[in-house]
Design brief:
The protein has one helix spanning about 135-140, and strands at about 5-10, 10-20, 20-30, 35-40, 45-50, 60-65, 70-75, 85, 95, 100-105, 115-120, 125, 135, 155-165, 170-175, 180-185, 190, 215-220, 230, 235-240, 245, 255-260, 270-275, 290, 300, 320, 330, 340, 350, 360-365. It is an all-beta fold. The relative contact order is 0.12.
Length: about 375
């Protein structure tokens, strides 16, 4: 089990450590800065932190000594002539990096490889630990990309990157709002992989168009890479190699942003439900986690030690994490709440701290 957590917040990166049976804040990095995302590379133990500094843009920092010191890396950059559409009838705009929205390590056979998904919808690759980045043109130049449009942001973005643990050439990315795209040749060519998904916010004739599906989060089971789960804007979907199958019985709501799958059991997954669209708060003001252990046939509503009255904590798409054991999970909210479980969600414990709004949570590899 992992005894360290990286918690990315609106006002800094908080390093949580477990000791004497409890979790505490061990260190505070970039205090006061907006940390959008942090990740530990399990291959060499490096930590990466994405700082979203508004007028000063995105910065990417790397630490090779568990946060004792940090060094600035390069950030992805678009070239002259690269354009992005917003789907609102306006002409395309020059593509400029707005946010590094996802960051994933490559395989053990690719020691320097990193993948980054960005707003406005570009996928980038680095083969030197982030010292330089190359736009994956095979995806960027697909004509279908011009049909992507913004969801919560004005521009589309890549928020989820899944690298097949058995074959690193196989990549799947989740796009808001542009469906799911896959490559089987290390990013050289791509195809749409959202067949079977349904978008209730579109006209009936376009509801099943793969290129308009608003996927909020895409995860892959490491122990069974054929199994994917997706939290969609209007539902939960499961994939086993064919078309996506909609799961309609998630209680108390099929809407949400965050989800996690057990690293060894593809049938066990967790979701943090909310009411959708204009409200985006917990159902009935109660923070709960929904768990399935049978592939979505049934769900349990987990609420032990979670706030059950007048709680308005929204959990964002990267703010739920699971460790390599599959027993420890942690999630944080936009109002600074933070909870940890060590028994797959049967019991939760709240961190004794008032954090800034939580953007992302990640366990550090042991």
């Amino acid at each position: 089990m992992s005894d360290l957590l990286l918690v990315s917040t609106r006002k800094g990166l908080f390093v949580l450590e477990r000791g004497n049976g409890a979790w505490r804040i061990a260190r505070r990095e970039f205090l006061g800065d907006n940390v959008a995302l942090a990740m530990c590379d399990p291959r060499d133990g490096s930590w990466y932190a994405v700082l979203d500094l508004g007028h000063f843009g995105n910065k990417l920092q790397r630490s090779t000594d568990r946060g004792a010191t940090w060094k600035e890396c390069a950030v992805p950059a678009y070239g002259e002539g690269d354009e992005v559409s917003t789907g609102d009838g306006k002409p395309p705009q020059p593509a400029t990096l707005r946010l590094i929205w996802s960051l994933e390590p490559g395989s053990a056979q690719q020691p320097g490889r990193l993948w980054a998904g960005t707003i406005p919808g570009g996928l980038f690759r680095s083969d030197d630990h982030g010292a330089s980045w190359q736009l994956v043109r095979g995806l960027w130049d697909m004509p279908e990309r011009r049909g992507w449009f913004g969801g919560g942001y004005d521009q589309p973005g890549i928020h989820s990157i899944c690298i097949d643990p058995e074959d690193a050439r196989m990549i799947r990315v989740g796009v808001s709002t542009g469906g799911i795209w896959g490559s089987n040749d290390d990013g050289a060519t791509w195809k749409q992989c959202a067949k079977g998904m349904r978008a209730e916010y579109m006209p009936p004739e376009r509801a099943y168009d793969p290129n308009v599906q608003d996927v909020h989060r895409l995860v892959q089971c490491r122990g069974n890479p054929q199994r994917f789960w997706a939290q969609h804007h209007n539902g939960v979907f499961r994939h086993d190699g064919g078309d996506w199958e909609e799961i309609t019985n998630v209680s108390p709501s099929v809407f949400g942003f965050a989800m996690a799958v057990h690293p060894h059991d593809p049938d066990t997954a967790w979701f943090v439900p909310a009411t959708k669209d204009v409200r985006r708060i917990p159902v009935d003001g109660k923070v709960v986690v929904a768990r399935t252990r049978d592939g979505g046939n049934s769900f349990e509503v987990l609420r032990d030690n979670l706030p059950q009255q007048d709680a308005y904590d929204l959990t964002l798409r990267h703010a739920l994490a699971i460790d390599a054991s599959g027993d420890r999970l942690a999630f944080g909210s936009t109002t600074g709440g933070f909870w940890i479980t060590e028994d797959q969600g049967d019991h939760w414990r709240m961190l004794d701290a008032r954090l800034p709004p939580v953007h992302a949570v990640s366990f550090v590899s042991a």
